Amino acid sequence: MFRKVLTASVLGLLLAGTVVSAPASAATIGNGSACTKVNSTTKANGYVYKCTKNPAVKNAKVTWVSLDCLNTHAIYAKQNTAYLALVKSLPATLAALDAKIAAELVKVQEANAKADTLDAQSATWSTKLAEFTTARDKLSADGTTSPKKTEALANYAAAIRSINSAIRSNAAASISLRKVGKSVTTMQTTRAATLSSIAQAKSGVGQSLSMRALVCQKGL
Predict the structure, then answer these.
(1) What is the pTM of this model?
(2) Bridge-partner residues for 49, per DSSP?
(3) What per-residue confidence (pLDDT) applies to 180?
């Protein structure tokens, strides 16, 4: 019953089925049972066995080994190969990311410095804008009329428009410059994800290895 539940719930996706020889005695077949013809197959209790070496046994001799065991080993081997490839490439991958992050951080510092300069300039212009606005309003409210006053008011209006335009332009440029740091966050996230993928791959290999040990144990 344990064998049926294990195969149905955990190994249902494992492939099974080859050219099978005449069924052997169910009572004598299981992982580790003696066999004579290498690569021959047989069927017992609804499971297929192959005469080969058990991949989960060190220095194994040729015995009957279930296809479930062999297929589970194939899954483990594939995952382990992929994991080792990731581990091998990890130093170079991290070094490349770290170099990009360092270079981008330099750009961030430069961009922030420029943005700070623009913000300081805008603050100065805002002060000047307030002075011009106050002077214009005072002149406009003095109750007199003259060509000179009209010209002065026009000059104030032009100056106020120009300063407002410059402040808006500086604000837009400052915002754009401060967005440079977002790429650093993205690269740092990528770096963390790379390390996480290694850990997940290692965990998957460990689970596959445990499953192989379970399915390939003697007598199953």
Answers:
(1) 0.60
(2) 42, 66
(3) 83
